[in-house]
Amino acid sequence: MKFERYGIGIAKGMMVTFKHLFRSPITVQYPEEKLAVSRRIRGNELVWYPDRCTGCATCAKSCPHGNIEIVTHVGDENSYVVDKFEVDTGRCMFCGLCVESCPYEALAMGISYERAQYRRGDMVLSKDALLLSDIRRPSGYARPKVEVTLPKQTLLVYWDKDREEGGQKVNFLTLSKKRGRGV
Amino acid sequence: MTLLEQFQLWLGSIWPEWAAYITPAIIGVVVVLGFVLTTVIIFIYLERRLLGRFQIRTGPNRLGPEGIFQPIATALKVLLKEDIVPAKADKAVHWLAPVIVFAPILLIFAVVPFGKGAIFTDLNVGIVYVVAISSLSAVGIYMAGWASSNKYALIAALRAVAQMVSYELPVILSILGVVLMVGSLSMNQIVESQSIPFILLQPLGFVIFFLGTVAEMNRCPFDLLEADSEIVAGYHTEYSGMKFALFYLGEYGHAVAYSAIIATLFLGGWQGPLLPPIIWFLIKIVAVFCFIVWMRATLPRLRVDQLMAFAWKCLLPLAVINLFIIAAEVLWLPESMPWIMVVLNFAFAGVLILLWSKLFTLGGGRVEV
Amino acid sequence: MTIALNGEEVAKKITEVVPGSVAAADKMAVVVGSKSLYQVAEFLKSTSGLDFDYLNDLTAVDYLDYFEVVYHLTSLKHNHSLVLKTRCYEREKPIVSSVVSLWRAADFQEREVYDLMGITFEGHPNLKRLLLWEGFAGHPLRRDYL
Amino acid sequence: MAIRTEPFILNMGPQHPSTHGVFRMRVTLDGEVVLDVEPVVGYLHRGIEKLAEGRTYTQNIPFTDRLDYLASMTNNLAYVLAVEKLAGIEVPERAEHLRIIMAEMMRIASHLMAVGFFLNDLGAMMTPVLYMWREREKLLDLFEMVCGQRLTYNYMRVGGVSHDIPEEFLPALRRFVAEMPGLIDEYDQFLAQNEIVLARSKGVGVLPEDLAINIAASGPVLRASGVQWDIRRGDPYSIYDRFDFDIPVGSAGDCYDRYWVRVQEMRQSVRILEQAIPQLPQGEVCAKVPQLLRPPVGEVYGRIEAPKGELGFYLVSDNSIAPYRFRIRPPTLINLTALRDMVIGWKVADLIITFGSIDVCLGEIDR
Amino acid sequence: MFDIVFWVLAAVTVGAALAVVLLRDVFRAALCLVLLFFTIAGVYITLHADFLAVVQVLVYVGAISILIIVGIMLTHEVWRGNPSGKLRIPAIVVGLLLLGTLVFSAVTTKWQTSDVPPQEPTTAAIGASLFGEGGFILPVEIAAVLLLAAVLGAIVLIREK
Lengths: 183, 369, 146, 367, 161
Known about the structure:
- The structure holds 5 protein chains of 5 kinds.
- Chain B is mainly alpha-helical.
- Chain B is about 70% helix and about 0% strand.
- Chain B is built from 15 helices and no strands.
- Chain B starts with a helix and ends in a 10-residue tail after the last helix.
- The model of chain B has no long low-confidence stretch (mean pLDDT about 80).
- By secondary structure, chain C is an alpha/beta fold.
- Chain C has a domain at about 5-90: Beta Polymerase, domain 2, CATH 3.30.460.
- In chain C, strands 1, 2, 3, 4, 5 and 6 form a 6-stranded mixed sheet that branches. In chain C, strands 7-8 form a two-stranded parallel ribbon.
- In chain C, strand 2 (about 20-25) and strand 3 form a beta hairpin.
- Chain C starts with a strand and ends in a 24-residue tail after the last strand.
- The model of chain C has no long low-confidence stretch (mean pLDDT about 85).
- In chain D, strand 7 (about 310-315) and strand 8 (about 325-330) form a beta hairpin.
- By secondary structure, chain D is an alpha+beta fold.
- Chain D has one domain: Orthogonal Bundle (Cytochrome-c3 Hydrogenase, chain B).
- Chain D contains 15 helices and 8 strands.
- The chains are: A alpha+beta, B mainly alpha, C alpha/beta, D alpha+beta, E mainly alpha.
- Chains in contact: A-B, A-D, B-D, B-E, C-D, D-E.
- Chains A and D meet through helix 1 and helix 3 of A and helix 2, helix 5, helix 6 and helix 7 of D.
């Protein structure tokens, strides 16, 4: 292999890195700065609406791993009463098939993504833990009605260009420069 | 007469002779150690931040304002880690290796002039001493590679030996060009005679010396000794804790030392207008180091046979030719017109580099087995 | 578009050269006896007009009565494909001759089939388990392995 | 007169910085020269083929995400195409277009990783990787927008795709398509002309054309050896026959050609995206398919051109809700066959870059 | 002051030399050889031969010892250490005889010591006497040519085919 180009290739490459020296970094300082995630995010946990659930167990059947356990008994008015609704999120692979398959929209993926636990046992969620609450909100995955209410996702494609959003200019940089220490 | 020698003389007049010898030595060691440790910490911070910016990251910025305490935290973390010695290791050699890698760096600083007269000892063989001492750390590297009883480390040790031996020659030959012009081996005189920095007077010599030293301090693109994509971490694969910290220190210490030598030999050392000499010197060191970081952020690595071919087929002949050119110029050109020399040498450097780019081949690389 | 060759027509051609080798043939595939597999494969690879130089996929299916080893062949030259199959009815130690010397592509795939299905490929240069470790009991992809 | 030396065996992996996963190479070395290489795989074996035999056709789609996790979308596509072929299901036009858009985006993302890590294996200290990662991140954002996940998409369904795209998807994709060629140019300028890269990768790890065909190499590895074979053109699936694109072909079959072919394929993928976005029709995104699909008895081999090569699914159906046999043809496992032939006689460093230029993904090799 | 330094260096030198001979581990023996070279450089410094000391480090520590260690690294079955051969006893005898002769001649010779203080910067003086007028320019050149021939010969010998 001959060095026929007199190091011009090396010089060009070094110019490229030099140019990047003056571009703003794209790092997002995670715990302090958070970007808006997708409206359809298949977040960490499920949200279960007991009033909509009929106990048909379609979700349990559709789960590839059989993580959802449902025990019902027949109540009055010929409907099922759900005794036990337990999801082992420790074995869940967040494919979203259960949410897609639910005919009554009684199950939704969660929007949050910070649900680390110290023990595997803590990841098994029972009926009460799956209910809608402040920290457990549904995402728009397969739920178009929820989707429109959620904030729009931050996109890296717009990292160097302003984007009009709700009357004010938002871009990736301004988002990642908002440096609020602590949550 | 350096500052330290004056101090020693003064001390000799009031204290017994042996104390007058030992006290300045201890002071010198402490000062050098302090200087090396602080600059190493600054350099580590600088490199990480700069690399971050080159790679559109931010780099460490959590600890302290803009992360300036990060190197200290890193140092603490490394020091507090468990010290692991492989069961099959040659314990004594394994223990000794990091010390031998680190010690020569301190010795190098004995002859580096920080300012006018601010030199620990103005050896009249200064620059040869630097070369001799810096070759010592190769001993430490192959000790580490051998004693770890790890095959990656052994490969790194073999590479180290080949690399050090090959690159010493072009480095020495390019230094000789400087020495010819100065007419002395003393570092102080080398600096003082640079009314025009030697980078302008001997561009080719500078390029050769720079590449050679980058190879000797195992920096990109010659970082084969710790080529992480090939041989994991090279010679210090099996090191942890305090010993690893010494290697880490040694690596950056080498960077500091060689940056200082490059600044002294080719960039005019502490000379410069307006600012005090020590500041100029530090600015030059940091500039050289930043350039090295820039190279590290950009360039891939050469292969081991290409590295050797580069040393023997490219740098060595160029260094010899450079030496002859400088010798001829020193003999025949009038000393009063250095600018002619600048123009002439830049022309020579350009022609030679173009010529070698045409002629030079790195060889095929494949071996029939 | 890759043309899938009609198995019956190819079977005729095979019978001409290696008589008695074809066990069954339909539009989709040619099934040959496990004894004459190598000869048939060699014929398919080297005959002009067929030129099956590319072995896409080699796998085996356990039909409980027998194992079926399936070869998906393609000719990059003519852009046509063929499914070649062979069956072995032995359950304890099924043996099929290896085609590694024809298509090196079979190297890892035969090892994988040997590993997971327990079919020995005779003539394979390095028939070791690929995914599981040596000494693993049983062959997991068999239908009777639980 | 040669110095008598002793070869030694080096176990590279399973934990090694550049084995791209839990992969082990048993390398016999004579000094720096590679005498023999034996790849050892199986550290990530999860038995997906066995697991799939106990799950319905739909439930198997998430498993395909976990094959080549750098190109989940194409794995989904390959599987659903095979199932559709088996069951004879027609796919709506819009879904076909969406599938192609997703597959080409995925190809760019996968090639970005391959190219970046190839340069990293060359020793370029993470810089190219981080630049390429930035572009890949833009694509992952888009995937996340569509299906809610960044790595394991589970987007394709038998009969179409699971969701229609949101309204802000197309503007963002258009912007990406517009800026991507310029960025590829910049990366070309960055390292493709670098003398060290050329010296390290040109002529290294040569895979001759006949050997490439014989080992059934596929994807960029095959095309770099000079074989103009791309399943998108040779055996068009979905609606690839409607798009205009070139098949970049290398000449020498060395590491540099494999790198070059990947870069050119990214350009071609951008071209396909440019054509597909304006054509995107309105309509349904998924055909009516029973929830528990029971394909007729039979077998099918469906293959597509995944970023890493020919990804095939061999499915045998016994008219039950689960496949009787579920076989994945992993492209990189078969490409890996060539490794030994490519590196014998070269140095350790060449072994690393040759391995990097094959672009393996251990999730796929071990399944 | 220099006396103390000299004796320390001398003791280390002798110890290192003994270790080179006596250690079973070849690699450690080689390392002791490096130490030996280094302390000898120290002795040179105490003799005001600074250029010689630096060259000693440069050549012996920087180059020769590295070559020795490469040789050891490439040796077969190096873990076996120093093998004890049949010649062990004769070697000891010859070594002791040589030592005796050297000590005897060193003790009995009348050393001519001059009272002239050593030249301080030795470098220029060495250069002048090697390359200057009436110096050793011819022997130096002959030695250089000889070394070049040796290097070329080695390359020719090592080259395969």
